[in-house]
Amino acid sequence: MAPPYEFSDAHKESFRALAASVSFVGVCALMFAGLSAVFALGEVYLGFVPNGLATALAAAVYGVMAWWMVSAGRSLSAMVRTKGQDVERLMEAVVQLRRLFGLARVVIILLAMLVTIGGALVVWCNLVVERGGKCFGGLG
After folding, report:
1. How far is residue 102's CA from residue 55's CA, in Å, rounded to a whole number?
2. Do residues 104 and 62 make contact, with C-beta atoms less than 8 angstroms apart?
3. How wide is the angle at C-alpha 117 spanned by C-alphas 51 and 138, nearest 5°?
4. Buried b or exposed e, range 35-66, using 16+ CB within 10 angstroms
């Protein structure tokens, strides 16, 4: 049986720096998600329920992404500290990063679709109003 792969000290230093950056960004993102959740509660309390729900949803998605960042940073840190488990720890980090970037891809696609649809509705509404019509049953 082959001995487990071990990264060189120079490689581990690169992974250590990456782990520190990923963990820092993850912790900051967790705090931002928590603050967003507080704002969501405030919006609901003030009667802006749809806004509060949207903010809560965004906070939840951001919190999940932040947790995956923190987990990836921990796995990279563990890889730097341990001997004989480099590949296993690296793959743990890769799983968390794949989740993070997979969700980010979905969020970006959804936001691009919303912006495109919203822009088309604004253009359409302006054309209707210019011709003397009413947009969305009375707006305009």
Report:
1. 21
2. no
3. 70
4. ebbebbeebbeeeeeeebeebbebbebbbebb
Number of neighbouring beta carbons within 10 Å of residue 30: 17
d(CA 92, CA 102): 15
Query: How many angstroms separate the CA atoms of 10 and 138, rounded?
Result: 66
Per-residue pLDDT of the chain (140 residues; tens, 9 = 90+): 777 788 989 999 999 999 999 999 999 999 999 999 999 999 999 999 999 999 999 999 999 999 999 999 999 999 999 888 899 999 999 999 999 999 999 999 999 999 999 999 989 888 888 888 787 765 54
Please, what is the end-to-end C-alpha distance for the chain in angstroms?
A: 75
Q: What are phi and psi of 139, to 5 degrees?
A: -75, 145
- pTM of the predicted model, to two decimals? 0.79
In Å, how far from its chain's centre is CA 114?
17
